[in-house]
Amino acid sequence: MSSRLALGLEYDGSAFSGWQTQPGGTAVQDAVESALNQFAGNPVDTVCAGRTDAGVHATYQVIHIDAAVERPLQAWVRGTNRFLSSAVAIRWARLVPASFHARFGATARRYDYWILNDPVRAPLAHGRVGWVFRPLDEEAMRQAAGLLTGVHDFSSFRAAECQADSPVRELRELSVLRIGRLIRVRAVANAFLHHMVRNLVGTLVYVGAGRHAPSWVREILEARDRTRAAPTFAAAGLYLTHVEYDPALDLPAADDTPPFAFR
């Protein structure tokens, strides 16, 4: 009889072609399932909370598996990590009810986008941040962000290849915080459309750089036209940093510190 487990993952997205399995085995899912197979001694399928794109990182991706073998929870962490590269790791494992579903059971997802706002690029932050060399007005970005929160049709911020049935989402938080040379844009929603966060960030950057007033984002939102918004921002600065579930599950809390050693 199998047991359902929830596993928390952290990974460097620049090393992979996204989460979802690829024919060449270059996705995070491919690496994780291969490691789990080797540790468990039998095929193990994974279901994730959110499919991240190529180059997008995670500090709190959640997956569930049905384990056909019994192992101590810590063994699932340390044992599986033996078969993983330095670019990805299992951070924790928890026994969950058979009804738990990593994707459909999530009540909210949180993404953080980190922007390096500096005249000169920083080699030590390469692949970890988006870079804007022009000075950004974070207060203007903050004002614009406030106009985008709530339940809206986000058609202007979804990728053309987005397969979601509806463009309506509840954006519960879109905040802007400056920490020295870094600007963090935090987005929390019940779910996100394809490229939605990166499109929101690109639009906020246009406002911060003075190309448009904060009120411009309201015009974009109401237009429901992707061509009206700014280009999709780079994947490098985007991190999946938390997935919320029923508190009764008592899953580990998310770490709120910057996910890289750079200031």
Gist of the model:
The protein is of the alpha+beta class. Helices cover 20% and strands 28% of the residues. It folds into 2 domains: 3-105, Alpha-Beta Plaits; 108-240, Pseudouridine synthase I, catalytic domain, C-terminal subdomain (Alpha-Beta Plaits), CATH 3.30.70.660.
Fold and architecture overview:
- With 263 residues, the protein is α+β, with helices and mostly antiparallel strands.
- It folds into 2 domains: 103 residues, Pseudouridine synthase I, catalytic domain, N-terminal subdomain (Alpha-Beta Plaits); 133 residues, 2-Layer Sandwich (Alpha-Beta Plaits), CATH 3.30.70.
- Helices cover 20% and strands 28% of the residues.
- Strands 1, 2, 3, 4, 5, 6, 7, 8, 9 and 10 form a 10-stranded mixed β-sheet that branches.
- α1 crosses α2 and α3 crosses α4.
- The radius of gyration is 19 Å and the shape is globular.
Layout of strands and helices, then pairs:
Layout: E1 3-11, H1 28-40, E2 47-48, E3 57-67, H2 73-81, E4 88-95, E5 108-117, E6 130-132, H3 138-146, E7 150-153, E8 168-179, E9 182-189, H4 196-208, H5 216-223, E10 238-244
Parallel strand pairs: 3-10, 5-6
Antiparallel strand pairs: 1-3, 1-4, 2-3, 5-9, 5-10, 7-8, 8-9
